[in-house]
């Protein structure tokens, strides 16, 4: 089973609308990804902050849950949005390399260039969210096979 993921920049009050959306990146600025689960997001969080997995995972409790087979929405903490927004090109490459070497990405055979591309897109989205005073949300919808 795969996961369809949209990561968007939106206002806090848009959480429910994001959760009810069929395709959030059509309605908000964002990126589409596949198979980015909570573990991968928490791993990025840990790389950016130095926190342990046990502590970081609590920051990603769902802010919206839709039924049994519907989407779940997570809010990326402001600290992570700020860190992503502040990454320079060289730091983006370093984070991409380190992230690609983690168990979560290696287990799913993610090519290093795809992980780097993801970090670049997240940094750009974080800069947009930061400049507009918005938060970043992760909309995850399981793909039933």
From TrEMBL:
Protein name in UniProt: Uncharacterized protein
Phylogenetic classification of the source organism: Bacteria, Pseudomonadati, Pseudomonadota, Betaproteobacteria, Nitrosomonadales
